[in-house]
C-alpha cells in the first residue's frame, strides 16, 4: 500500500510539474476544452497560485493546481484536481465543493480593502473545476453536484449545483492525441494503459512531435515527467534496467532522448523475449527427456509383466516385482489374449 501511495504521489507531482508550466496549461485548455471562453485566455494573463487546497484526508491520494486569469475585467479561477488513482471516487462532487469553498474563503480573507466585501457590487471569482483522471476503469461518478443530493428533483434551481470538466486519459482516442501533437497530448499518449510494444511505437512518434512543437521550457518539463514517471511502469529487475536506460538517454536533446529510449526499450524487450524463448526450449527439452525416461521405464515394466505372465507366475508376485497395480496387470493380460 505504501508503495502504491508513493507511486501515485510521484505521478501527481509529475502531472503537476507539466501543467504548472503556463504554455502547457494553455495548450491543455485549447486542445481539450471545447468552449468559446478558452479563446479569451492569454498566456501572459495567467497567474499560477502557489497554494494547495487539498484537505489532509486526501493528501496521499491527489494533488491540485490553481490558476487565476482576468478575462474582460473579471477574475476567473481554474481549479485542477489530479485524480491519478486506480479507482473512481464517487465523492468527487463533494470534495470539489469543499475545495472551491476553501478558495472563496481564501479570497474573502485576503481581500486587501476589507470594506469591499460588504459592497453590493462585490463578486467572488468564478471557479472552473477540472478533474484529470487516469485510472483503468471508466469514470462513473456523477458529474454535477446536485445529483448527489437526495431529492434534488423537487427543488430544481433552489439547490447548490455545478458541473466539473472531466478528462479521462485512458478513454482518449490515440489518433486524436497524435493529431493534437503537443506536450500535453504526448504525456496522455504515454500515460495510457497499453502494452509495452505500443508504448515503444508511441515513443518513436512522440520524438518528432516534441522536436517540432515544443519550446525549450516545455521540453524541460516533458523530460522531467518522462524520467520520473516512466520507470514506475515496471517492476523488479525490469524496472532497474529501464532506470539505467533512462539515465543513459537523459542528457540527450529531448527528441533524441525519446526516440533512443524507444529503440533501447525495443532492444531490451526483444532480448528478454529471446531469452524467454531459449529458456522455454530448454525446459521443453528437459521435460521431453524426463518424459521419455518415464515412458521407457513404464514400457520396460510392461514387457517384464508379459514375460512373467507367460511363465505362469502368480499375479501377487508380479505386483511385488513390477510395482504395478493389479488393474494394470489385468489390463496387460487382456491385451495378450
Task: List its salient traits.
alpha/beta, 2 domains, five-stranded mixed beta sheet, 11 helices, 5 strands, disordered N terminus, double-stranded DNA endonuclease activity, Rpn family recombination-promoting nuclease/putative transposase, RpnA
Question: What does this protein structure show overall?
Answer:
The protein has 2 domains: 171 residues, no CATH class; 129 residues, no CATH class. The chain contains 11 helices and 5 strands; from the N terminus they run H-H-E-E-E-H-E-E-H-H-H-H-H-H-H-H. Helix 5 packs antiparallel against helix 6 and helix 8 packs antiparallel against helix 9. Strand 3, helix 3 and strand 4 form a beta-alpha-beta unit. By secondary structure, it is an alpha/beta fold. It has a 5-stranded mixed sheet with strand order 1-2-3-4-5, covered by helices on one side.
Give a brief description:
The chain has 337 residues and is an alpha/beta fold.
How are the secondary structure elements laid out?
Layout: H1 2-19, H2 22-32, E1 47-49, E2 63-71, E3 74-83, H3 92-109, E4 126-133, E5 165-168, H4 174-180, H5 183-191, H6 196-213, H7 216-229, H8 236-249, H9 254-310, H10 315-322, H11 326-336
Helix content: 40-55%
Low-confidence stretches: 1-8
Separation, N- and C-terminal Cα atoms: 68 Å
| Total helical elements | 11
Structural class: alpha/beta
Average pLDDT score: 79
What best-fitting shape do the alpha-carbon axes yield?
elongated
Q: Give the neighbour order of strands across the main sheet.
A: 1-2-3-4-5
- DSSP strand tally: 5
How many separate domains? 2
Over all CA atoms, what is the radius of gyration? 33 Å
Strand content: 5-15%
Biggest sheet architecture? 5 strands, mixed
SSE succession = HHEEEHEEHHHHHHHH
